[in-house]
Amino acid sequence: MPDIRIIVHNLVPVMAMLRLPSVESEGKANLHLGAYGAGIDLAKGVVTYLTHRGKIIKEIPEIGSVKGLKIPYWDDILRIACQSQLASNLGYMGADIAIDKFLGPVLLEINARAGIGIQLANLSPLRKRLEKSREWK
User: Fold this and answer.
1) Helix (H), strand (E), coil (C) string for the chain
2) Are 77 and 4 in contact (CB under 8 A)?
3) pLDDT tens, position by position, for the chain (137 residues)?
């Protein structure tokens, strides 16, 4: 099942990625097992770059290009991620959220040490975004 990982720092979403299972990952949305990672433009909720096994790729062989794909329920997904951080009392975390066909966005889990694959999927260093988020209130 695909899911969306949102990195939240001090109640500010700083980076997001769509994780897409593959045959190689045996249906799991886990990048280390061979799933695909797709960066998401935080302001628009649109897929930007696509990665697989640490490399930028143009398309998924079984599907084609996902660039430009609009993530449904985007504002709700961001809200769930921020509310999860508030409830967890963690200053930095990753929220994994799936979209259920009947319920819409649902929180799967919270990660206190979210992986760094999200940086490559967004072609952006996480550190710079974390530093910038300290300035926002």
Assistant:
1) CCEEEEEEECCEEEEEEEEECCCCCCCCCCHHHCCEEEEEECCCCEEEEEEECCEEECCECCCECCCCCECCCHHHHHHHHHHHHHHHCCCEEEEEEEEECCCEEEEEEEECCCCCHHHHHHCCCHHHHHHHHCCCC
2) yes
3) 999 999 999 899 999 999 999 999 999 999 999 999 999 999 999 999 999 999 999 999 878 999 999 999 999 999 999 999 999 999 899 999 999 999 999 999 999 988 788 999 998 888 877 777 766 65
Non-local (6+) Cβ contacts of 39 within 8 A are 16, 17, 47, 48, 49, 50, 51, 118, 121, 122, 123, 124
Amino acid at 27: G
- CA-based radius of gyration for the chain: 14
User: Is-above-0.85 flag for pTM?
Assistant: yes
Tell me how far CA of residue 40 lies from CA of 37, 99, 113, in angstroms.
Answer: 10, 15, 20
